[in-house]
Specification:
The complex is a heterodimer of chains A (about 325) and B (about 300). Chain A is mostly helical. Chain A is built from 15 helices and no strands. Helices cover about 70% and strands about 0% of the residues of chain B. The chains are: A mainly alpha (about 325), B mainly alpha (about 300).
């Protein structure tokens, strides 16, 4: 890059910019104009919805005009804290959200372990095969994961039920899907099945990047296999792990709704409803559109707080921001 | 000492191999299980009797299922959004990533943050839905494409990649009078192909797998995707039974080939999986090369 180019608005020398000189619009604005259509798209689909927040101040019903519905001020926000039924509902949903995210963070060490153990496999062909096949579940949709769960666990002809009956462990089909006894565990297990192999890829790449000489030196010093893993491999992938951990903190309450949406049924609803799913169920399917908007607003505000927190943490520990 | 460590080694390696063998099998078996159920006698599969290997093999299901009402339309929508959406996303992120690599751009840092922040922050699903409604994005194919054109993560990838290229390339072309667009198409685009390929596969898989946008935005069957139809088939056994009755035909008395809830569910699942099976191994190759360059500053 030439020395004049920086964030400073110094006019460039004519030699460098024949095209700009021809048109008359300074290059810095011309570049902005190129980006403008895309910025408009981002504005329309990501920022314009902020306007929808005003629905939380009304008693809005879809199909009516906003001006025809009563303005209620902060009533819906107050009711989250003042109306016992709604407080309880929101607390239940928050508990599910926090539980799923916390379990997600706890299990985030599994891909690390997976990568370290895989790096100990000597047969290249075995390693490659494992790596390719275990990432397959990551590329299928949650609907398909549910289809698999359905084929494996449904009460009529699911494989697991057939198997357990044949082995004499169960005497009849058991409905594993419409069941609320271990919903959180089931969700994290499916998420692990889907994401483990894929999650390990980053770490596998990080391990490949570790200087082989470190291992040789450690061997000379008499360090055993586990010692080498602990003292060389683990520190080697820590930076990668830390970045990903920060991102999951920033996204702590954004755990999406697709997985929970496809797995939900009337029986496991109490434990599967995370924030977004709850907002969908009450706002889109139920009648309480404005209340749902208020809840999802609070969620957005909390998530921006978490983002700043994670960013701070990142600057403090790594000296670099995440956004 | 030496002997101890080598038996320890052996035990470790045995368990290590065993663990990976079992987990790999766990990842693979469900797909195998779905597949053998689609090609076995429909009568047996509906009773859960096809467990480890196919029985009375036939391939009728794949032909029959595509004839089901709405399914070929859903396949068309899925393919359409995948192809068009992928091209749009790759073009959008490649161009925007390139523009953002230009330090001369007006208020570059601000606009870059303007885009990046949308990775972590959104207004919430209900306000988003209301705006989509107002923009006439419900029951509109464009709703599958337009919001996907700018994806912050891909923009980062391209920007970082372009910044890693030698500056001399662009400078010498500029000397020769090449404008921003010429530079992009002649110099940058050919060079960023590895990262563009990564993004293409990523975007294609995302589009193919998208589901929740249909749930929110589409009420007209015309815009249903395969994922959505599969979800419906899994949950609505009543409507599925109606479809089976209407497709059954009068002459079809062969129980092993007559469509059942199970045969339709497994076959549609396989149709949804097959394209992924073909595409994803390529991803592995590009991914490590492409992402590792870009992910340094994520």
């Amino acid at each position: 890059m030439s020395s004049a180019a920086g964030t400073s608005p110094h006019p460039q020398t004519a030699v460098n910019q024949p095209a700009a000189a021809k048109r008359g619009i300074p290059e810095r604005y011309r570049l902005f104009l190129y980006a403008l259509p895309f910025l408009v798209l981002v504005f329309v689909f990501s920022y314009l919805p902020l306007y929808g927040w005003i629905y939380s101040l009304y008693n809005y019903r879809p199909g009516f005009k906003l001006s025809d519905t009563p303005f209620v001020g902060l009533q819906w926000f107050r009711s989250i804290f003042a109306n016992p039924t709604q407080t309880q509902e929101v607390l239940r949903v928050m508990k599910n959200t926090v539980a799923m995210s916390a379990l997600g963070i706890l299990t985030s060490v599994l891909p690390v372990a997976f990568a370290i153990l895989l790096s100990e496999i000597r047969s290249m062909r075995f390693k490659k095969t494992v790596q390719i096949l275990t990432t397959l579940p990551n590329f299928i949709s949650w609907v398909l994961v549910y289809a698999i769960a359905f084929m494996m666990f449904n009460v009529d002809n699911g494989l697991i039920n057939r198997l357990l009956i044949e082995l004499g462990i169960q005497d009849r089909g058991y409905n594993y899907l419409a069941n609320d006894s271990h919903t959180w565990l089931a969700m994290i297990l499916w998420a692990t099945w889907k994401g483990l192999g894929w999650g390990a890829i980053m770490y596998i790449a990080a391990i490949t990047g570790i200087d082989q000489e470190q291992y040789d030196a450690a061997k000379v010093d008499g360090a055993g296999r586990f010692r080498q893993m602990w003292n060389i491999t683990v520190p080697g992938i820590m930076p990668t792990y830390f970045v990903l951990l920060l991102l999951s903190i920033a996204n702590f309450i954004n755990n999406g709704m697709e997985q929970y949406f496809v797995f939900q049924n009337p029986i496991n609803k109490d434990h599967i409803e995370v924030l977004d799913l709850y907002v969908y169920n009450t706002g889109m399917l139920g009648t309480n559109f404005s209340f749902a908007t208020a809840v999802s607003m609070l969620k957005s505000i909390i998530s921006i707080g978490l983002l700043f927190f994670a960013n701070r943490l990142s600057k403090w520990v790594r000296g670099e921001s995440i956004i | 000492m030496k002997i101890r460590s080598s038996t320890g080694d052996k035990v470790f390696h045995t368990f290590n191999y065993l663990f990976f063998a079992i987990f790999t099998l766990l990842c693979l078996f469900p797909f195998y299980y779905l597949f053998i159920n689609t090609i076995s006698s429909n009568d047996l599969s509906s009773r859960g009797l096809v467990m480890w290997y196919p029985k009375e093999i036939h391939f009728n299901n794949y032909l029959q299922v595509l004839k089901l009402k709405g399914l070929s339309q859903a396949a068309l929508v899925s393919v359409g959004r995948t192809v068009i959406g992928t091209v749009a996303t790759v073009a959008g992120s490649a161009f925007l990533g390139y523009i953002f690599s230009k330090r001369k751009m007006w208020a570059r840092t601000f606009w870059y943050r303007f885009i990046m922040i949308t990775m972590y922050f959104n207004a919430g699903i209900i306000p988003w839905y209301v705006i989509m409604l107002k923009l006439h994005m419900t029951n509109n194919f464009l709703a599958y494409i337009l919001p996907m054109i700018v994806s912050p993560f891909y923009v980062i990838l391209v920007k970082t990649f372009v910044e890693s290229l030698p500056e001399v390339l662009q400078e010498s072309a500029e000397m020769d009078g090449a404008g921003t667009m010429t530079l992009f198409f002649r110099i940058i685009l050919p060079l960023i192909m590895p990262i563009a390929a990564t993004i293409a596969i990523f975007a294609a898989v995302t589009q193919w797998n998208s589901f929740i946008d249909t749930v929110f935005l589409m009420t007209n069957q015309k815009y249903y995707t395969l994922q959505f139809v599969l979800y419906k088939y899994l949950n609505e056994s009543n409507s599925l039974a109606a479809i089976i009755r209407s497709s059954g035909g009068s002459a079809n008395v062969d129980l092993s080939k007559m469509q059942t809830a199970t045969s339709i569910r497994t076959t549609v699942s396989m149709i949804v999986v097959i394209p992924i099976l073909f595409v994803y191994p390529f991803f592995q190759r590009f991914f490590v090369k492409g992402i590792m360059i870009g992910a340094v500053k994520g």
